[in-house]
Amino acid sequence: MGQLDGKTAIVTGGNSGIGLASAKRFAAEGAHVFITGRRQEALDTALSEIGSNATGVRGDVSDLSDIDRLYAAVADQGRRVDVLFANAGGGEFSTLEHVTEEHFDITFGTNVRGMLFTVQKALPLLNDGASVILTGSTAAGSGGEAFGVYAASKAAVRSFSRTWANELKHRKIRVNTLVPGPIATPGTAGLAPNPDEAAKLWAFFASQVPLGRMGRPDEAAAAALFLAGDQSSFVTGTELFVDGGLNQI
Ligand code: NDP
């Protein structure tokens, strides 16, 4: 018997990296999974990897009409939502003197505005007792060079989860933040201009981590599954770090 048998889960940014690994895990545990992302081709590839228990809805979380289309697709299948993993995220990375309005708007538009309205617009479809998982980042507390705007956006996510856990407690909806440290995904590879530089960057990240390596997407997905299902039924308003000890030691 799967941990999410008969449940409906949504994973935004489910066509890559942590989101894709989590969508696969949720589906393997019996959930029907809706995945989103802006790139249709990546969605199609992801759907073929997840299997028949999944639906893809293309969309940009910073566009409210795309969020509406996602929930319309869920409602069209006559489903309500048990697990919402608001994972879509990313951003632009610049030092203070080079930050532009566009950098700021893309990063906050995705990680803050997008996350806020993804959760707000899900409320009518969320079952009482549902699990909402937000994606933060160890960057929120790191002070890493060129991470200022991204880190600030992820610090906002931390605040969201505490406030929303409080506001939604009357419906027994749990809200937690998954906080990845450096995980080997297309997202972290994309921080570098080419594969050689990406390998160097991953080696640098690994050298900073107490456990001495980058994390794998399936390790983040295992934590997401814990937060999604009944194993975490008494856990809300908190953060789960999956970072090889980066933030703790
Ligand atoms: P990936 O780049 O591999 O995946 C990011 C996902 O988000 C993709 O599916 C992408 O799909 C989607 N996405 C990005 N922007 C938007 C948007 N505006 N609208 C809809 N979907 C969007 O990165 P990761 O798996 O590494 O990152 C997943 C989450 O984890 C992010 O929130 C990231 O900030 C966070 N994180 C990752 C860490 C890491 O080391 N990997 C560390 C800390 C936090 P598409 O491009 O098709 O839109």
TrEMBL record:
Limits of the Ketoreductase domain: 7-186
The keyword Phosphoprotein appears for this protein: no
UniProt keyword annotation of Oxidoreductase present: yes
CDD domains: SDR_c
Keyword annotations: Oxidoreductase
InterPro entries recorded: KR_dom (IPR057326), NAD(P)-bd_dom_sf (IPR036291), Sc_DH/Rdtase_CS (IPR020904), SDR_fam (IPR002347)
UniProt-listed Pfam families: adh_short_C2
Gene3D superfamilies attached to this UniProt entry: NAD(P)-binding Rossmann-like Domain
UniProt-listed PANTHER family: BENZIL REDUCTASE (PTHR43008), CHAIN DEHYDROGENASE, PUTATIVE (AFU_ORTHOLOGUE AFUA_4G08710)-RELATED (PTHR43008:SF4)
Record family assignment: Belongs to the short-chain dehydrogenases/reductases (SDR) family.
Descriptive protein name: SDR family oxidoreductase
Organism: Saccharopolyspora erythraea (Streptomyces erythraeus)
Taxonomic lineage from the root: Bacteria, Bacillati, Actinomycetota, Actinomycetes, Pseudonocardiales
